[in-house]
Structure formats: structure tokens, C-alpha cells
């Protein structure tokens, strides 16, 4: 696959700095936080959005936190409230999201998914299913610090029945560390348990929840692959036919994220592109992790690049910032 870089009026990090990572935002070379902080200070005074976007989308989260500390030392003011005064709409949400730590950002997405009328189950699942056990523990702590509320209690109050059990099991997951050892007996037992759980008149979700939240991803991929081979059926279709409601959605998202997280996120982008919050959430949270992989899967699914889709769906300064995080066209 050929990658064509389109610049968005900003300096692009040398491509050799990108080697070995699937993120689009990398450590900025020759990083000078005081220079960045002063440029941001001037940009805020002049409402120079281009400069704000150029700097904040070309620094890693760790570098942005240093910039925020330096800005506070220089001005005796916090950077995020200063950005909020100058910006508005989707661009404000995007840059304020970039200024949060990853755990703070995830905590805010979870809270927003449960605020107001109705619950955004898909966002809850996206965040919870694509984070490691350690990340989920950190998010739980950040949630309490940010909102003075317990994430577990909010999940219980905003969801119901087996779907609640699934979310709490994901939140508290303590995955067994197989340390590269393939336990064929455990694989066979898990395949049998998952099969038996679907054999009765009513499918039993308990074995699916227990196994999917207490095994590491390598083991689970072997289990799911063997299950499909033995049954001659795709797991996703089996879940769709045996379960219903939010539980069905939750199990399907969990399985998809285990089997191929970038593909799952690309599918979510394809179905929710017009929801700017979904795009912002994925670009911010995956920009230093696996956004290149998400872009590749999106290209295969949509027969169009994520970059060109953003160009089509968004305009103005917000488009510029989104493209800066996406970074490049995939041909």
C-alpha cells in the first residue's frame, strides 16, 4: 500500500521517526516546551487557530502535559480553560480532549455516555472493550477523581441485567497471564464451555462473560478460532442469533475487539462517521497506539481512505485538526 503524505500547513515529523509504531502522532524531535508555550500564549491572544492546531496535534500526550505545565508557570493560568475561551464547537472538544491524559479522556467519554437522557451503550463498549485490565483500573481511578463518582455504581444505575454483569466483568477483568504458553487443554475446555452455553433452549451468557473476561487475547483468539472451526460458524453470527438486546451488542463488540481491534474501530467509524464525537474519540485515543492499523482496515471496508472521508464530511478548522491527527492519505 502506497502512502501519500498531504501536509495540512504544519511541519511533518520525519518519516524515519515513525518507524516501528502504528500511531500517527509521535514524539516531536527537538522538543522545546517553553517555545511551544509562548507560541500558544501568543496564538491565544490573537485567536490564531492554525498555530494551536499545528502544535497540539504534533506533540505526544506526554509532551502536551509538559507544555501545559510550562504554560502555567509562564502565565499563572491553566491552559485548558484558556483554550476553552478562544475555541468553540467540535474544535474546542477536540483540542480540550488532546490536553487531557489518556485516562482522563476515557473517563470523560464514559461519563458523557451516561449523562442526560438515555445511555450510549456503544461508546461504553468501545472504551471498556478496547482497554487493558491495567488501563481500566487507571480509568476507574481517574473517573472518581474527575467526577467524584464511582464508575462501577454509574454502570449499575445506567444499565441492566446481564448487560450490567458483562460491563462489570470487563471493568474488573483480571486476565490470566499465559506467558507465551499455549494451554491446549484449557483451549479445549473453553471451546466446550462456550458450545454448551448455546446448546439449550435459552443461551447461557455466564460462560461467555467469564471466559472472555478472564483470559488473555492470544488464548482467546485460539479459542474463538477453534470454536469457529469446530462449529463451522462465525462467532459473531452465532452471538447475533442466540442473544438479544444490549447483551448481544456487548458480546459482539467484545469478541470483535479481541479478534481485531483496528477492524472493530474501523467498522465503528464507518457506521458512525457523522457523529463527530465518535471520530474525535477514536482519533484522540488511538493516535499514539494503532491509528495506522485502523486507517488500513477502514480503507478495506469503505473503499475510501479515512483521510478523504474526513475531508468530505467536515470543514474549516475542525477538518484541519482532524486531518492533522489522521495524518496521511492511504491509496
UniProtKB/TrEMBL annotation:
Family: Belongs to the annexin family.
A GO-annotated cellular component: cytoplasm
Organismal lineage: Eukaryota, Metazoa, Chordata, Craniata, Vertebrata
Segments forming a coiled coil: none
Molecular-function GO term, any one: calcium-dependent phospholipid binding
Comment, domains: A pair of annexin repeats may form one binding site for calcium and phospholipid.
Protein's recorded name: Annexin
Pfam families to which the protein is assigned, alphabetical: Annexin
PROSITE patterns the record matches: ANNEXIN_1 (PS00223), ANNEXIN_2 (PS51897)
Keywords from the UniProt entry: Annexin, Calcium, Calcium/phospholipid-binding, Repeat
Keyword hit for Repeat: yes
